[in-house]
Design brief:
Blueprint: H1 15-24, H2 27-36, H3 44-51, E1 55-61, E2 67-73, E3 80-83, E4 86-92, H4 99-106, E5 109-116, E6 121-132, H5 136-142, E7 151-164, H6 176-208
Antiparallel strand pairs: 1-2, 1-5, 3-4, 4-7, 5-6, 6-7
């Protein structure tokens, strides 16, 4: 949070945003949100949420304000908590456009948007990010064990503020792996029940004879 910010939420609620809130009638409600305060540190709930996340969207902007969003994915928990105000992840080799790295080289402001479609939850995290190259020790800490990707560098994200959203309008979707596991468990239970039915029928037949 910069010195110009009175509240943590000022990272998002700029003067222009507040003016529109005032004109459209929501400023009083969000004024109370400011008083309660957005969170600026990782708590147990956020840490647990990130530990279960295998995907997020990472936004940056160029020096002249052109926004860019990239998807980042990996095993659950690949976006790691380094301390109460710092997140980090191994940045895997990709198509070598380097838009995110280029943006961060001239504008450190960044944003993380994490969606949990299955439970219709989302978390918004504002902050600043930097690229760390040639730090083998940090890369080793952040690289998921056994994951088939080549880490090219590390991105470290300093939290300014974070908040959650209501589930309104979030479509409920499920990961293919979770669906496959649920179907496998169902099929196993069906097989067990069918075996029990067959055993009961066999017993009844034996008793009748």
């Amino acid at each position: 949070m910069t010195a110009a910010h009175t509240y943590a939420s000022d990272v998002a609620f700029t003067h222009a945003v507040k003016a529109i809130q005032t004109r459209k009638g929501s400023r009083e409600a969000y004024g109370r949100v400011e008083q309660r305060g957005w969170r600026t540190e990782v708590d147990e709930n956020l840490e647990a949420f990130l530990a279960d996340a295998n995907s997020f969207y990472f936004a940056t902007a160029s020096a002249d304000g052109q926004p860019y969003i990239q998807h980042r994915g990996g095993p659950k928990g690949f976006l790691k908590v380094l301390d109460k105000q710092t997140l980090a992840f191994a940045d895997y080799a990709g198509n070598q456009q380097y838009l995110t790295q280029g943006n961060l080289s001239e504008n450190a402001k960044a944003y993380i948007f994490v969606m949990d479609y299955a439970h219709r939850r989302r978390v918004k995290i504002w902050g600043e990010a930097r690229v760390v190259e040639d730090d083998d020790a940090l890369t080793d800490v952040l690289m998921p064990k056994g994951y088939r990707a080549r880490p090219e560098q590390v991105i470290v994200f300093k939290i300014a503020a974070w908040d959650t959203n209501c589930p309104q309008h979030i479509p409920q979707k499920f990961d293919a792996a979770d669906v496959a596991a649920a179907l496998a468990a169902r099929d196993q239970r069906i097989a067990e029940l069918e075996a029990q039915v067959a055993a009961l029928k066999g017993r009844a037949t034996a008793e009748e004879s």
